[in-house]
């Protein structure tokens, strides 16, 4: 089913993701388009929307807590020497139009607006691709352009003084289960070992599903992974890990993350083979 505000992505005729372009959300949640539910081919949901622990976590999308002081993540803002603080600084990502919309993907234009001003302009490209009878891939690219006449910078709680909290960019809030998921990369395992480090790919394995994330451009591969498993299951690619990221007037930054969505618990070899198949042109 497709409507003006909702698009359903399909793989081999099966619905695997619902994309909401104009969600009705409070300003405090930094309203933005999102994918939810995202499911495996057998129908197991692997995302959560506005969970009780973090109501501003909205399935799969792009969320940035600090764009020149504007909050496009939702919730409180981390203020240096003060901590998490409620501020009236929330922005919104506004859907403008689809340049292309097919059953297996779309190209979308968005405007990031805060305080009545357009802060960023985005072109988002999303595609769903079949891999095997039990796995498919979500290819997610976002290009952010500074449309203003002045330089801007993108930050994170980490760059604002909170160690280990470099979230902001592509983010996937995964399904929370009774037991925390396992997480591993080609050379490490466990949240402490993979969080805040770059890796060719990273896998999150739940009770009956596995997500395998990979940066698909050189710039994306250089971004460290933001990972949570114990507190909640979530994976992101950090735009501003240890320093603010500048975007000059008229410049565009591009990031592309490909995610394998698989039924079952994959081991390291299976995860590597599937993500290689998903990312290889």
Textual characterization of the structure:
The chain contains three helices and 20 strands. It is mainly β and 281 residues long. The chain has an eight-stranded antiparallel beta sheet. Strands 4, 5, 12, 13, 17, 18 and 19 form a seven-stranded antiparallel beta sheet that branches. A three-stranded antiparallel beta sheet has the order 1-2-3, with no helix packed on it. Strand 17 and strand 18 form a beta hairpin. The chain is globular, with a radius of gyration of 18 Å.
Q: Which structural class should the secondary elements be placed in?
A: mainly beta
Proportion of beta-strand residues: over 45%
Mean pLDDT score, rounded? 96
Rg on CA atoms, Å: 18 Å
Extract low-pLDDT stretches: none
Q: How many helical elements?
A: 3
Query: What sort of overall outline do the alpha carbons produce when their principal axes are compared?
Result: globular
Widest beta sheet: strand line-up: 8-9-10-11-20-16-15-14
Main sheet specs: 8 strands, antiparallel
What is the number of E strands? 20
Summarize the helix and strand pattern as letters. Answer: EEEEEEEEEEEEEEHEEHEEEEH
How far the N terminus sits from the C terminus, by CA atoms, comes to 29 Å
Helical content stands at under 10%
